[in-house]
Amino acid sequence: MARENPRSPARKPGEPTLTEQARRAQLIDVTVRLIAENGNAGTSLARIAEAAGITKAAVLYHFGSKDALVRAAHESALTGLVEHVGAAVESAGAERAPAAYVLSMVGYLRDHPGHTRVIVDAVADGEDRRSSERWRPLADLMHAARRAHGAGSETDAGLDLRTTALIVGGGIDAIVAEHLDHPGFDPLAAAEDLVAMLDRTLFP
Amino acid sequence: MARENPRSPARKPGEPTLTEQARRAQLIDVTVRLIAENGNAGTSLARIAEAAGITKAAVLYHFGSKDALVRAAHESALTGLVEHVGAAVESAGAERAPAAYVLSMVGYLRDHPGHTRVIVDAVADGEDRRSSERWRPLADLMHAARRAHGAGSETDAGLDLRTTALIVGGGIDAIVAEHLDHPGFDPLAAAEDLVAMLDRTLFP
DNA sequence: CAGATTACTTACCAGTCGGTTAGGGGGCGT
DNA sequence: ACGCCCCCTAACCGACTGGTAAGTAATCTG
């Protein structure tokens, strides 16, 4: 009774609607790309919706909030990296596992530039700031490598492996960041330098 | 003629107005603190004004735009760091200059937690992303240290000093970041580990 | 003591943000 | 053939952003 005049079409006449699964996948894809280009804060729901060819409200229909969508995008970008690094570490011997970790991680990020900014962003924005936790797997690999090499406990010659892992992690971040906005930079060569530094420290 | 009714007081009757110099200094101070706590994007003009006890418009009266204020805050936070590191490097011998650089930088950031996030933020937000440029002074110090030690050119044993400086810089960033949200963490001890790694790499 | 200057205030603006609401078109099962 | 449900749109919200316009009290200057 208030106002019920038939407004404009409620649906684009041209393209068919996608199934929920397909739409979710598409939206995650688009979101990863946009966050990669402009960061999370610089990516609005409206822009995501526009890039997907639907409206903002439709995006929120699938993912109740922007936060949920961004989280899904982060997760999607991360699983690829985790699987890649996991496989590389597993196929390397215990002694070379830390090197495999560093090299495969940098290599993956080089080959998936879209995911890189998203992951960096996820780490920077989210509560994943707890760096020591972030690099704990690397510290564990380093510990195992030293034992496999016959070296002593964690603090041999005043060396703290947790701290070393944090430093190496910082090196990885720096290499990836440099790669992001210096196209001419070769991240894998830098990663090999980093591995050389690590080896000199790990196996004195 | 349109509307000229005398509105409310144009000035807080209580506190006296500050001189331009004093107000600018206070605003920079407040801005550094707020950016340190919530980052640049998370710090609005209104919040800065509130913390300073004046209105948003008054802030813009002193610094024509938010950007100008933030730039001033960044500059203020940076000059202290640059002076401190410069002095430390100068008082160290050429051979120990890289170590002095790393240790004094981490030490300063530990002792000035307020400035830390601001500097990190300035690097992340601004166009100072060109990390290689950022750590170029360190690379130069490393080069000089190797020559003072009688070591060969930059690429001795496949070692690229620019890349090494980038990696060490990443380590510094990681240590500082860890210090920021892990109060129990000792950044100077970690910096000493980093220096040990660097020495092993620099003087083989 | 008059006038200009300094350091503000209130009020307002246009734009963007994430999120909500009401409804409607198209394909499906019956 | 019909009704229902899924996927979607248009329109709107309130909160917040940086920035502007106009006016005014206290202080300085002549």
UniProtKB/TrEMBL annotation, chains A, B:
SUPFAM superfamilies: Homeodomain-like (SSF46689). Residues 44-63 bind DNA. Residues 21-81 form the HTH tetR-type domain. InterPro entries: Homeodomain-like_sf (IPR009057), HTH-type_TetR-like_transc_reg (IPR050109), HTH_TetR (IPR001647). PROSITE patterns: HTH_TETR_2. Residues 1-20 are annotated as: Disordered. Pfam families: TetR_N. Keywords: DNA-binding, Transcription, Transcription regulation. It comes from the Bacteria. GO terms for molecular function: DNA-binding transcription factor activity; transcription cis-regulatory region binding. PANTHER family: HTH-TYPE TRANSCRIPTIONAL REGULATOR ACRR, HTH-TYPE TRANSCRIPTIONAL REGULATOR RUTR. This is TetR family transcriptional regulator. It comes from Nocardiopsis sinuspersici.
